[in-house]
Specification:
Radius of gyration: 15 Å
Structural class: mainly beta
Number of strands: 9
Number of helices: 0
Helix content: under 10%
Largest sheet: 5 strands, antiparallel
Distance between the termini: 29 Å
Oligomer: single chain
Order of helices and strands: EEEEEEEEE
Length: 107
């Protein structure tokens, strides 16, 4: 977790094939958890949205100020996505070690 990280743009709606039939799945939940964090506990996760992958808005900032959040994992529920894409950026801001896990559920 000592390095800055940024995902690519991810569509809120994904095409998938189930039993040879095309279906569309929507992102409904994103889970953020971290553990064994060391160093200056001042990290930040940004949840960013866009409709065109050029212009964007930081919709949510999550502070990493504890060594672990496994007993209080952060969930971001997406009820009605009104944007085309999202991405996630992580800034360590002094964090020197640890493990960050981000999981997206599509339904």
């Amino acid at each position: 977790m000592q390095n800055r990280w940024e995902s690519q743009w991810i569509p809120f709606e994904m095409e998938n094939f189930q039993y040879s039939k095309k279906v569309y799945l929507n992102a409904v939940s994103i889970e953020f958890n971290w553990e064994d964090v060391e160093g200056i506990l001042d990290g930040k996760i940004c949840f960013i949205v866009s409709n065109n992958q050029r212009t964007y808005k930081i919709l949510k900032e999550i502070q990493i100020d504890t060594a672990s959040n496994l007993n209080n994992t952060y969930f971001l529920n997406i009820f009605y996505p009104s944007f085309q894409y999202f991405k996630i950026e992580y800034e360590p801001n002094g964090i020197s070690n640890g493990r960050l896990t981000i999981a997206v559920v599509f339904k």
